[in-house]
């Protein structure tokens, strides 16, 4: 297996592990890894990360459901809002310049990290 393929598998492994443990990983792991390790264009990295979320989430949901730790009533309501937000975000992605996209993404990650550390 060549070096790029090993990096790609490693990115997937890290994203899957983080997704399974924390319910995140598509964006927080995959986007920076694709941009900085594989030199993928930012817009393409964000779009690719979105395509990775579904299979990761299906596996995690099956295991969480089996262990009865999903609050389905909340999940369905949030999913409705998430679908609307995803539609709007996907339409806006190519309209946001890379430098602004990076600042927004980085700010969200930093804000979430600070909130997690404080609580």
TrEMBL record:
Protein name, as recorded: Probable membrane transporter protein
Residue intervals passing through the bilayer: 12-39, 45-65, 72-94, 100-118
Membrane topology: Multi-pass membrane protein
GO cellular component, one term: plasma membrane
Family note: Belongs to the 4-toluene sulfonate uptake permease (TSUP) (TC 2.A.102) family.
Keywords: Cell membrane, Membrane, Transmembrane, Transmembrane helix
Compartment annotation: Cell membrane; Membrane
